[in-house]
Amino acid sequence: MEILNNFSQIEVESPVDKIIRQIRDLITSGQLKAGDRLPSERKLSEKLGVGRTHLREALQKLEFYGILKTRPQSGTVVAGMGIPALEGLITDMLGLQGRDFKSLVETRVILETNIAQLAAQNRSDEDIIEIKHALNAHRVKIEHNQDAIEEDLLFHLKIAEAGKNSVLNSLMLIITPDIMQYFKKHNVCGEGRAELAVEHHEQLLQHIVDRNPDKAGEAIKEHLREISEYVKTLKDGIQLNGNGSLTT
Question: Is residue 153, in this structure, part of any structural domain at all?
Answer without folding.
Answer: yes
